[in-house]
Specification:
Elements (H helix, E strand, L loop, with lengths): L2 H4 L2 E9 L11 E11 L5 E12 L4 E7 L7 E2 L4 E10 L3 E12 L4 E12 L6
Antiparallel strand pairs: 1-2, 2-6, 3-4, 3-5, 3-7, 7-8
Length: about 130
């Protein structure tokens, strides 16, 4: 099997606007996002750390780095999934997020799982 397929974690994001925690009059927009990981490779791998790049509608960037996700460093065997929900706040009604997750395979190989850029948007703003 090709090495690139051996170490492969898919990461998919589903964002959601949280109206009851937001305050548009004070430029506070809160979003939740659920990330679902699936080990589509052939070796077990553990999520070690995360790196998020959050950009608001005025091109202001926040970077967030840390160990694990929501206090966990899950080990995913081939075919297993792990899902978590977290949140962020931006100052505009529309923004974007993209992330990468440092993984360590059972054999010690380090690699990244990447979440492609996704949009944070309040309802009925984007068509």
């Amino acid at each position: 099997m090709a090495e690139s397929k051996k170490y492969q974690i898919e990461a998919r994001a589903v964002p959601q606007f949280i109206a009851d925690q937001s305050d548009p009059a004070n430029e506070r927009y809160v979003f939740a996002y659920t990330i679902r990981f699936e080990n589509v490779g052939t070796v077990p791998a553990q999520l070690i750390s995360r790196h998020w790049v959050i950009t608001d509608g005025k091109a202001r960037v926040q970077e967030v780095r840390g160990l694990g996700v929501v206090g966990q460093q899950p080990l995913l065997k081939p075919g297993e999934t792990f899902e978590y929900t977290s949140g962020c706040q931006i100052d505009t009604p529309v923004g974007t997020m993209r992330g990468s997750f440092q993984m360590t395979a059972e054999d010690g190989t380090q690699f990244e799982a990447v979440t492609g850029e996704f949009t944070l948007s309040i309802p009925r703003v984007l068509h």
